[in-house]
Amino acid sequence: MAKLKLTKNEQKKQKDSLKRFQRYLPTLMLKKQQLQAEIRTVEIRVTELRHIKERMDESFRKWLAIFGEEGVFTPEILRITKLVAGEGNVAGVPIPVFEGAEFETAQYDLLEKPLWLDTAVDNMKRALLLDLEMQCLEEQQRRLKKELQTTSQRVNLFEKIKIPEAKTNIKKIAVYLGDQQTAAVVRGKISKRGMERASS
Question: How far apart are CA 88 and CA 92, in angstroms?
Answer without folding.
Answer: 9
